[in-house]
Amino acid sequence: MTSWTPQPTGLKQILDTIIESTNEENNQDTQQAITEKLNEFTRVPEYIAYLAYILAFMPQQEDRIRTIAGYLLKNNARLIVRAAPEVVAYVKASVLQAFFDPSMMVRNAAGQDIVSFLGILEPKNWPECLQQLVHTLDSSSLDQQEAAFNVLEKACEDYPRKLDVEINGQWPLEFMIPKFLVLSEHPSPKMRAHAIACLSYFVPIGCQALFTHIDQFIACLFKRASDDDPQVRRHVCQALVLLLASRPEKLMPEMANVAEYMLYSTKDKNENVALEACEFWLTFAEDPDLAPWLHPLLGKVAPVLLDCMVYGEDDLLWLEGDAEDAHVPDKDSDIKPRHYGGKAHGLEREAANGDGSSKPKVGAYGEEFEDESDSDFEDEDDEFADEMSTEWNLRKCAAAALDVLAVRFGADMLNHLLEPLKTKLWSEDWLQRESGILALGAMAEGCIDAIEPHLPTLIPYLINTLNDSKPLVRSISCWTLGRYASWCTQPISEEHKNQFFIPTLEGLLRMVLDSNKRVQEAGCSAFATLEEDAGPELAPYLEPVLRNLVIAFERYQHKNMLILYDAVGTLADAVGNALQNPSYVDILMPPLLKRWSKLKDDDEDLVPLLEQNPDMDEPDRSFLVVALDLLSGLTQGLGMALENSISRSQPNLLSLLTICLKHPQAPPHMPAVMAELIVQLDPEPKVEFISACNNAAWSVGEVALRYGRDEPEFQQWVHLLVSRLIPILLHPKAPRSLHENAAVSIGRIGLMHPQMVAPLLPEFAQAWCQALYEIRDNEEKDSAFRGLCTLVQTNPAGIAKASPYLRYLSHLLPC
After folding, report:
1. Which H or E run contains 230?
2. Are residues 735 and 767 in the same domain?
3. What average pLDDT does this structure show over 271-289?
């Protein structure tokens, strides 16, 4: 052990505070004071060493006290970066000691600490930890083996690139990969699952140590494909998905068998296995180079995906979808943080399917962590139940796969689904009807030409389902009508308007005022889509539209009020000057002003409410400068102590800073801002940093446009930015919004600096096209595609790999 020792007074203060925090009789004020006190301890340079001491060397304390110290240590792990060498050495030694403590709770907490510290310090700076974990895999104790493998799996998942390094002249993975392959045959199913999971996480990064043994790895997957344990099968499916995305040529010789296995697994009774298998078809469909292998499988794949889109019993329990709950106030946990100024592109399909999931924990790019029941780690997420309805699940994955298949194969795909889809749409079982309506919406974009002849029948059918007694049917019908809004709003003839546009308009307005909050949300969102597509065609109907929206202002709870604000803003954009009619202003402004009068200066509704008035003057420049100077001083003076305040700020402080970047006075401060944005562009962000990465990916494109063409000052950042944006774009597990924001910014930087970016075009051209070819037309898409065209003109050979998209691209811009 190192020379550091705790001071009795400091130890007592921290220990007493932790003990006091466990008092169940504490009221909210007392608990808040304890939290503030714990936060103050973070200013003590040796704080993490005290926590490590309590965790590892105070067996006389209750296990839960030591465990809380371990969790506090994990939450403050980044303090180790600026800690003194003796503190760093002590903490490292202590958590390894605690990892072998007799108490399971303490071991679990120490394991989480190891994952955090190993990621922050990096294995090359803590090789003894990695060595001890690998050595423990040969322990005579199965519990110790599984605990060590659990830590290794999370490390492999969170930061595989940091493990693929040379340490003291050796590459640890050259030993670890063969070790994992051997352990895939272990008698314990947990050990087998860990082994396959660890191996699979190195596939996306092109790990040479794994690819040296790629044939053994694939043989291992085939052997474990029929494993009795569902966790093992789930990781087999996950590995096959990752191989398909990164090394498809290795699967092609056995694709017939692989496809049959994945079809079988997509119907697995264990939803986690089925979900991973379903990801296979989504990945398959997204790669245009694999279309010749996928096309012959459509007849089998499409009906299976359709069946996967039916709500399960667990989904319905979580959703409680039948409630007439419009009058019930929202809980704080119902309302997710909103980031103003950032952009989330892509299809709306995920937002519409508010169904549940049985996944307890999600990794940085949406991949699952091990099920809590099979894990040595305890997930203390108190809001888990409230977040269930937004998790990625089998239903959503199947809908997404069907969407991409429709785009890829159009009418050919629809032909395989016509009969099963008809059966579902006219089924007596509302669950079957609902899934059929979802499928109809999912196919809207890709199959529109083939579906269009059927729309004169389908649109009235959808409008009629808005009267269904089941809120979930009404909700999904709203979403699907929104997907076909562009067809309904076409100014083809007066008959078309009377038969389709006006009934759709009236139906969605009724849903805006539905008695169920989920239907209100779907109706309001779909109506906003209708507004965008109808544009000036909506002007003659403004009075009834406004009167309905005004009623919604009186009825809506907090969460849906935010969506209503957006619908009003979209309406203003759609009809333009028509809304300036004094009679319309008299209808709309009173409820907005009434809402304004109820808000405090720090209310999170203030920003979306202000967005309803696009003509409002920006804040006086002097106020902006004073505010920014104050924030700068606070940041310099308080440092990391501001972190919690910044993360809780509403409106989001980072989003507001992004807006300030566009101000004419911003450039002198840009070097420091750009340095921070570049740091946030992490190809493998932790789950809590994905939003920051997303905002940074969007912001750098905005900055590039602001600087202008071939601006010398911005050129210093081009290679740094693109070198970080491309890995984000190419990461197979990155969220779609992150892919899209990275692609948009690459295009914008390319538009401004084509000579610097064009040589890299072959690396990202195909992924770039895949990321953006489905998003809606807007200014960002326009500038991004103009950037791509400029890059193609500069380096024509660089687009060769994305040639399947060239025909589509030719319809977008005159390149």
Report:
1. helix 230-246
2. yes
3. 92
Token representation of residue 74: 């994990």
Q: Which residue has the tokens 């005022």?
A: 513
Strand partners, 368: 362
Which two tokens mark 377? 């780690």
Do 582 and 704 reside in the same domain of the chain? Answer: no
Quick one: 643 and 545 in the same domain? yes
Taking phi over 0 as left and psi of -120 to 50 as alpha, with beta for the rest, 793 belongs to: alpha
- Between CA 648 and CA 207 the distance in angstroms is 38
Q: Residue 661 is part of a domain; what is its CATH number?
A: 1.25.10.10
d(CA 780, CA 347) in angstroms, rounded, equals: 15
Phi-psi region of 429 (alpha: psi -120 to 50; beta: other; left: phi over 0): beta
Is 481 part of any domain?
A: yes
* Domain annotation covers residue 540: yes
Q: Which residue has the higher pLDDT, 781 or 546?
A: 546
What are the tokens at 697?
A: 């990916």
**Structure tokens of 450?**
């083939």
Residues 6+ apart with CB under 8 A from 223: 184
Q: Quick one: 558 and 604 in the same domain? A: yes
Q: What is the CATH number of the domain that holds 715?
A: 1.25.10
Task: Give every CB contact of residue 661 below 8 A, 6+ residues apart in sequence.
Answer: 670, 673, 699, 702, 703, 706
Contact 237, 197 (CB under 8 A): no
* Residue 105 main-chain phi, psi, to 5 deg: -60, -40
Q: Are residues 799 and 677 in the same domain?
A: yes
Confidence at 762, pLDDT banded by 50, 70, 90: confident
552 in Cβ contact with 514 (< 8 Å)? no
Residue 464 vs residues 419, 467, 474, 507, 548: alpha-carbon distances, Å: 21, 6, 9, 9, 20
Report the C-alpha gap between 725 and 728 in whole angstroms. Answer: 5
Residue 209 burial by CB count (10 A; 0-12/13-18/19+): exposed, middle or buried?
Answer: middle
Contact assessment for residue 804 and residue 782, using Cβ atoms and an 8 Å cutoff: no
> Taking the CA of residue 356 as centre, how many other CA atoms within 13 Å lie in the half-sphere pointing to its CB?
17
Residue 313 within any structural domain of the chain: no
What is the amino acid identity at position 210?
Answer: L
Q: Rounded to an integer, what distance in angstroms lies between the CA atom of residue 595 and that of residue 555?
A: 12
CA–CA distance, 225 with 261 (Å, rounded to integer): 8
Distance from C-alpha of 545 to C-alpha of 541, rounded to nearest angstrom: 6
Q: What pLDDT was estimated at residue 301?
A: 96
Under 8 Å between Cβ of 272 and 370: no
- Of the candidates 350, 723, 301, the one whose C-alpha atom is nearest the C-alpha of residue 522 is 350
Counted domains in the chain: 2
At 84-122, the pLDDT tens digits run 999 999 999 999 999 999 999 999 999 999 999 999 999
d(CA 159, CA 180): 17
* Nearest partner of 404 among 536, 291, 502, 532, judged by Cα: 291
CA 472, 282, 797: angle at the middle one, nearest 5? 135
For residue 498, what are the domain limits?
453-608+619-665
- Which residue blocks in 388-444 are alpha helix, DSSP H? 394-409, 411-425, 430-442
Could you tell me where the beta strands, DSSP code E, fall in 443-494? Answer: none
Is 530 in the same domain as 636? yes
- Residues 696, 625, single domain; the answer is no
| Angle, helix 517-534 to helix 542-555, in steps of 10 degrees | 150
pLDDT surpasses 80 at 667: no
CA distance 99 to 111: 6
Only one residue has tokens 């399971």, namely 104
Angle 370-154-380 from CA coordinates, rounded to 5°: 60
- Indicate whether 646 and 792 sit together in one domain: no
